[in-house]
Amino acid sequence: AVIGFAEILREEVGEEQQDLVASIESGGHRLLATLNSVLDLARLDAAQETLRPAPMDLVAHIGSGVRLFDGLAAKKGLQLVFAPAVPALPAVLDAGALDRVLINLLGNAIKFTDVGSVTVALRTHGTSAWLSVTDTGIGMEPEFLPNLFDEFRQASEGEARSHEGTGLGMSITRALVDLMGGTITVESAPGTGTTIEVRLPLGTEPDGEDGGHEEPAEPAARLEAEVAGT
Fold this sequence. Notes:
Elements lengths: L1 H11 L5 H28 L8 E4 H10 L2 H6 L3 E6 L5 E4 L1 H17 L5 E9 L2 E8 L33 H11 L3 E7 L3 E9 L18 H9 L2
Parallel strand pairs: 2-4
Antiparallel strand pairs: 1-3, 4-5, 5-7, 6-7
Helix pairs in contact: 1-2, 2-6, 3-5, 5-6
């Protein structure tokens, strides 16, 4: 309702009120993203999140997810690169969980990078896919890295806080990666940037499946709302 009425107001008010309407709309998107994060974390903590793995081409799936961020990266003057090591990579994974992981990692990378680039790389090793997101952003102090995946924790807090957020995204990311049977690692240095690497099992196709590719489990509107609220 907040977002919808803000969109209507944008068409009705004069130029002098447009900034106010934009603030309402932006706040609505952030609130929606926060509520979704809290609900997702509650489901994960209660072990109520059920995976629905399905065959997919991991290169095509991640590529379409990266393209959702083209506008956000361009707005900040950043180069957004997707660099798969292979032209295609068959996998059996939960599309919704994978989308959420990618949105959290890319959203953070772009948010904390003001100059340079964000690179999404994908390669395979044995029976695992290795997905990494590397930015040239502000990086993190070594002493904060052990707390990166804690709930409601951010590298900048209190009066020193430089970026908005709830501190839930990385907690949810790790929980989803764990649920998919993967691992996540982080390398970062202040002023240099950050690389987060996720290793996921490629999985095996369930018996009786025809090997077709399933569309992402989450509606496009949900994904777009997450990107808008980043």
